[in-house]
Amino acid sequence: xxxxxxxxxDGTLTDPYEGITGCILYALDKxxxxxxxxxxxxxxxxxxxxxxxxxxxxxxxxxxxxxxYRERFAEIGWRENVPxxxxxxxxxxxxxxxHTLFVATSKPHIHAKKIVDHFGMGEHITKVYGCELDGTRAxxxxxxxxxxxxxxxxAKRVMIGDRKHDLIGAxxxxxxxxxxxxxxxxVDELTGAGATAIANSPxxxxxxxxxxxxx
Length: 215
What we know:
The longest helix is centred in the first third of the chain and has 17 residues, at 59-75. The chain has helices at 17-31, 38-43, 49-57, 59-75, 87-96, 109-118, 140-150, 164-172, 187-192, 205-214; strands at residues 4-7, 14-15, 82-83, 100-108, 125-131, 157-161, 176-180, 197-199. By secondary structure, the chain is α/β, with parallel strands linked by helices. The chain has a six-stranded parallel β-sheet, sandwiched between helices. Strands 2-3 form a two-stranded antiparallel sheet. Helix 9 (187-192) links the parallel strand 7 and strand 8.
C-alpha cells in the first residue's frame, strides 16, 4: 500500500506572488481602497482569501473583493505563477518510489488544477483538492479531512506546505507535517506549527519525505 503525499500549491509547488498580489491590488483599486505594504502582501500568500480580505476591506465587502480578485485571476493571474526550480523532477522522483501524490490548496480546485496541468505537474498528481467557489473547505483542516475520506487506503500520509495552515491541517488529520522554507513561511512559523521536518529546496524534498516515511 502506497503512502499518500499531499502538496500545498502556493509557496510549495509554485511561486504565486505576482499573480496573487496583482489580483489583490486589482480588487482594492476597484473598491477604492489603498494598497497595503509589500510586507503585508507577502503575508497574504497562503491563508484563504476569506481570512485576508476582511482585514483590508471589511466583512461586508469581502465577497465582492473576492469576486474581483477572481475576475483578474481567471484571465491573467493564474498564468503568473512560476514553478519552483526542479519541482517537476521532485514530483517525478517521489511518484517513482510508488507513492500517490495529491495537491491540497486553499485555492478553488478549478483554478488550481489549471495551474498544475499548465506547468506539467499533472502527470504526477492523482487529484487536485481545493475549496469550492463559495469558500467551502478553504480551511486546510476541513480540506484534508475531506481528501482523506476520499482516499482511505494509505500506508501513511504526509502533508507538505510552506505556511502554518498546512501543518496544522496535517496534524489535525493524523498526517506527517513537512515544511518547506523556500516558500512564504519562516522556519519559526513552520516549527511552531509542528513541522517534523523542513526541506530548504525542492531538491531536498524527496529525501526529506523518504526519511519521514522510514521513521
